[in-house]
Fold this protein.
Amino acid sequence: METFELIRNSAGQLHDGLVRAGADPFQPLALVQAAIGSLDLDFVFLPPGDPALKGAKALLDEQTGTIRCEDAGSPVDRALLIAHEIGHVRIHAGSSACTAEDIDPSRSAEAAPVGLQRVEDYGVRERRELQANVFARELVLPRTFARRLHYDEALSASNIAKRSGLPLALVRQQIFDALLLPAAPPPAEIRPAGTTRPDPAQDRAVAHRGAPFQLQAGPGTGKTRTLVKRIVSLVDEKIDPSAILALTFSNRAAGELAERVAAALPEAAPRLWIGTFHSFGLDLLRRHGDLIGLPRDPPLFDRSDAIEILEEILPTLPLKHYRNLWDPMLRLRDVLVAISRAKDEVVDEKAYRVIAQRMHDAAGSDEEALAAAEKCLEVADIYERYEAAKRDRGAVDFGDLVMLPALLLEHEPALAASVRLRHRHVLVDEYQDVNRASVRLVKALAGDGKRLWVVGDARQSIYRFRGASSGNMAAFTTDFPGAVIDRLEVSYRSTGRIIGVFSGFAENMGASKGMLPLALQADRGEGSAVPEIRRFDSLGAEAEGIAASICELQQAGIRLRDQAVLCRTNAKLDDVAAALEARGIPVLHLGSLFERDDVRDLLALLSLAVDPFGDGLVRVAAMPRYAIPLQDAYRATRRLRELDRPALEGIAALAAESGFSEAGVVGLKRLADDLQGLRREGMPWDFLAGYLLDRSGLVREMASRGTLSGWMRSAAIWQFLNFVREQSPVGSGLPIRRLLDRVRQLVLLAEERDLRQVPASALHMDAVRLMTVHGSKGLEFEAVHVPGLTKVSFPSGYQGQRVPPPVGMIADAAGLSVDEEARRSHEQEEECLFFVAMSRARTHLRVYLSRTQDNGSARPPSPFLEKLPRGRVVEIANPATVPLPPNTPRPRPIVIRPAGENGITDARLKLYRKCPRRFFYTHVLGLGGGKKSTAFSRTHDCLYRLMDWLMANRAAGAVSTTAEAEATFEAIWRERGPIDHAFAADYRMLATRIINAMIRSGDGRAFRKAEAIDIRLAHGVIRVEPDEVAELADGTVVLRRVRTGYRRKDEYKSAEHIEYGLYIAAGRERFGRSARVEAVHLTDRIVEMVEEISDRVVASRISDADKMLEGIAAGSFPIKTDPIGCARCPHFFICAALPRGDLRLD
């Protein structure tokens, strides 16, 4: 049973016993005082600042059994303080002293895997305080009691808080825990452990003293067990526990290590420092960051925060290669990855510029080398601005948490000596994941290394993207001269058959170079199940085959929860999850949290608080609680635009209007009632908690689902609410607006990956575990299924580097070029990922592949399959499949009765091609909330208004000068531009350059009025609307397409740019075959005729357009998912929900 579950059970049992003895559960102070009596503890309140408190808020003296608490605050505050200390008594050994920051019983038992909690919650002391907080909450309001009050008796959270006097946040969190997460099963009977084969290498590693030591530990060899035994041996030798520092990389590994040490050394564990490199670095910066100008508690930026700061600075830099003014976010993402990579190598902004300048000086007249060096110098410019922005805010980012402590200790010898004196024994887990910054930090901590002990497996080095390298394992004897290397030789996880497969594969891995051979003995014996390869004719058949294989093993006695599907990418994982669920196989898989239906419902509700147009109503209307028909939702959103008031108020007004159906009126009134009293200015968590627990009662409905899929939906809501509680340290405006903007950024930057984790409280459910190979690190399963073993999927293809580092920055490049080193690193990581995937299996290992793509083209098998040892795997002929059930729901068409036949413009048709569902929301329903306003977007808006003015003048025959255009733009700028922005002058200069390009683009052309041109096709009419129509000196008519941005490489030939083919067809339709099409790209000042589109391509574009018209007429508006396009879409929070019913357009 999970640790927090045991703690909660202990607190709940104590509560129940006290209530049975007569305590009033609605009197928290009396309840905890009764608990003190029942536990035979002494208790005393002391005045604030009393010397006996030793500066603490509360103190537990284990020797005397006395709890001393500060006599301050309300009775409930004091009750929670006492309950916290009782938690220490019941679950921890030793005395404790707790500060005000330690006491927060409303905190979630699981840290949100984003922001500051991502690094600070996994030390032993932090976990002790969190455990005591959870105990306190459970003691005063057990989940069973909270469930009874809210679910059975239908009391709102506010009423429960009022009746008990408990903080509303505590009550809300406890109800969420009680009703959104499945109850844990009773503790399983503990089976006697079988006799395991001893590994003398473990004892050698534990006993080693006097020199740096590296233990190479293959999969399942008990490295964590050995590490814990090492710590126990040091404590047994009377080493002060506070002198022991244990570092690892992942929060999961740190948490597991902390719990194992606490179980083995209950009294000593709180004094050890156990945690991640990042949490240790943060602790060091909090203690000594003043030496480098940091505040006591610096805010921590993630990549989303960094981009919010930089995206308005970027346009002011004189960039050439990395200048993307119209869409800076993705470019900034790539540059920030490069900056983070520099920090992995302990290269700060000054050092980066030196290296980049050296590269430029060495380039000479080589144009390619000069261009590469110029790119690096541009990154140096951005790096410097970014660091300056962080300094202004006293902030750090994740890369700083290792680099800055390493530099701090290197540059401050007295501090380094003090820290080494404090942490005399340094142990590092997962050493294969260290980067150069980590190595330098370890060097600074370990000194001569005589008390340094590390363990790892170079073949499991799967974090190359953050600078981790198996080369650091091989370089250990160089980094720490005199080091001793040893290995573990017994695997306690896998059968001999599986060990034979991954050991054979390991022989030719790049990561094996410089390592001791992998020679493992199987403690479990050879085993009977032979690892299998299963091939299928198509991707669909592969999914059917995985389902059949899972069911086959289930029938053989392998529970679903003991089976895992491990995929190379999240996209593949989502496909497999959908296929299994469609076939009735339950899965533990959240997927992209912000794309789940229940979470999107809540995001749409939040948007109603800040979007005056109320577009989120379209999704909310589709919620079963409201069931507002599509026609009513369409009318309601149009009316909200007319009412000119916040949507929260407007919905209440709509409910009283006529013109809606009976079902629509009922739904609107219920929605208005549910939203009443919720504040748009409030915090997002408070808004949602009030809606879910006090207004709508939806949490009670979720708790009644009962099915595993229902529990996964509830767990997703719980995970989302856990995320919502964390606020970004940057940004301004309404907190709800900031949250919605942050969600978009996290998805766009793929920074929401950690939110895909299933909450620990739900992991006991009997369902197949689905995760990426990265996410499976450190886990094991009876059966492992690995799909997608094709050449283009696993290994994934090398994509190059969007922002390459300067030559000489990467420490272990071994004389390779920047690209060669990156390619080598990628190939080695892919090998390591496959090794990790195979070695998660205990008894059954099955890999899958498809012979063809969805389009019928061949899919060559993965080269990894040929590297598996012959005779160790078997290929299954004609593997079984499980087809989709015949009653599987199919997408239904949307019946639309148009108001009239006006044709579809080329611009709208292009949007339909990009995403039919977005077309429907935008051009059928007429939705389109405003984008986030930035200085650049406001500049962009001003420029388009000027373009409208200029084109109208030209069409009227007027010749506009640059001076006239500047004067007109200045008036627009003063009204709508970012004139109060710190870099307003830079944006104004940018606008001037584009204005000049606008004027020059019309040279040598006589303009006429641009009129729409209809092209009639079998399924409708396309209305081509050229931006301008001009005439050349020889009388040739030119249709012009004008854009402010850059020309793309495939601008004219790509099928995505259907408009150029339609322009050509329209020009010929109206002006004959001599008509031409001209493209104008103002940012790069390109004006050119579109000459490279053949008649065949034009005919293809017309055919494509007709098919799209057919789809529109048939009501077919499917979703086209795209991580970048979706996150930017104005309808991101409402897609893809749709209310029931037909639609008649006005």
